[in-house]
Amino acid sequence: MAGHAAGAAWDEELVHVLRRRRYEGVIHDFVMLDPLRETQAAGAAVEQGVGVLRRALDTS
Fold first, then answer.
1. What residues contact residue 56 under an 8 Å CB cut-off, 6+ apart?
2. N or C: which end of the chain has fewer CB within 10 A?
3. How far apart are CA 34 and CA 28, in angstroms?
4. Domain of life here (predicted)?
């Protein structure tokens, strides 16, 4: 069960960090919509999420 707890902690951290940042001028779920995938805001959000996961998993 420790693995599940660790996964839940990473998920909580990711959600907390991504909710803390606002991307002005975009709609909810903009990262998941194909027409908006190539926008600067979507790229920044994905990059931010990857950074959180790397820190949580302690990888480079």
1. 9, 10, 13, 14
2. C
3. 13
4. Bacteria
Average pLDDT over residues 30-56: 83
pTM above 0.70, yes or no: no
CB atoms within 10 A of CB 52: 16
Question: Could you state, in order of their start, the residue ranges of all structural domains in the chain?
Answer: 27-59
On the question of pLDDT at 59 being above 70, the answer is no
Q: How far apart are CA 52 and CA 14, in angstroms?
A: 6
Q: Report the C-alpha dihedral over residues 18, 24, 30, 34, rounded to 10 degrees.
A: -130
pLDDT value at 33 more than 80:
yes
Both tokens of 32, joined, read: 């998941």
